[in-house]
Design goal:
The chain is α/β, with parallel strands linked by helices. It is about 35% helix and about 10% strand. The protein has helices spanning about 10-20, 65-70, 85-95, 100-105, 120-125, 145-150, 160-170, 190-205; strands spanning about 35-40, 40-45, 110, 130-135, 150-155. Strand 1 and strand 2 form a beta hairpin. Helix 1 packs across helix 7 and helix 7 (about 160-170) crosses helix 8. The radius of gyration is 18 Å and the shape is globular. The chain binds zinc ion (2 copies). The site of one zinc ion (ZN) has 8 residues, from helix 3 and helix 5.
Length: about 220
């Protein structure tokens, strides 16, 4: 039986890039990654953490984040004291640092591993982002302002990303479809993807929990 040739959709591909950026986060409360894409090309990348020249959050650079994980501050509170930049903000500032003109971000897409906060949403709308692609589950009300501005919202199921992440881990799939190492009964793509999801859960149990449980602030 021949197996289908597979590759990620554009949305999956760029969300994988955002997931990769997330690994460089230095924030102790949550890891978030973001990329900005125009015409299927990645023009900026960001992850959350303290600004350049400031001690990293995980090294004690942000007192608010420290107090947050010690339970002294509730999720979403005292954000004005947080010195960690959000991933989306860093991606947006990346555009400024690189001298990308306003016309370069107009109509672009923001991929982010969580739902953007209000501040980041405001900035994203302002530079002309027309679509948010976000990962995971969250209340739709968090995206009210973006919707009001006519920004298209797409949610990606984490399982889709786990599927491709597994392909990266699976060295035997380098030259063939990811499903080749998983015995299947029906050969259908949906079945292959489900098989991979279950396999991944046993390999990387933390994958589904890194973003969980901290409200909508990214911090
Ligand atoms: Zn932090
Ligand atoms: Zn934000």
């Amino acid at each position: 039986m021949s197996r289908p040739f597979e590759r990620p959709s554009w949305d999956e591909y760029f969300m994988l890039q955002a997931e990769l950026a997330k690994l460089r986060s230095n924030c102790i409360t949550r890891r978030v990654g973001a990329v900005i894409v125009r015409d299927n090309r990645q023009i900026a990348t960001g992850y959350n953490g303290t600004p350049p020249g400031i001690r990293n959050c995980h090294e004690g650079g942000c007192e608010r984040c420290q107090q947050r994980i010690e339970g002294l501050i509730a999720s979403g509170k005292s954000l004005e004291r947080c010195i960690c930049n959000h991933a989306e903000a860093n991606a947006i500032m990346h555009c400024a640092i690189m001298g990308i003109e306003a016309s370069g971000t107009r109509g672009a897409i923001l991929y982010t591993t969580y739902v953007p906060c209000l501040e980041c949403t405001k900035m994203a709308i302002t530079i002309g982002i027309r679509r948010f692609v976000c990962l995971g589950d969250y209340p739709d009300d968090d995206l009210g302002l973006a919707k009001q501005a006519g920004v298209e919202i797409t949610k990606i199921d984490r399982k889709q990303i786990e599927y491709w992440a597994q392909m990266l881990l699976d060295t035997s799939s380098n030259s063939t479809a990811a499903g080749s190492v998983i015995p299947t009964t029906d050969g259908g793509e949906g079945h292959l993807r489900r098989s991979f999801h279950f396999k991944l859960r046993s390999v990387i149990p933390t994958t589904t929990t890194t973003d969980g449980g901290e409200g909508h602030t990214n911090s």
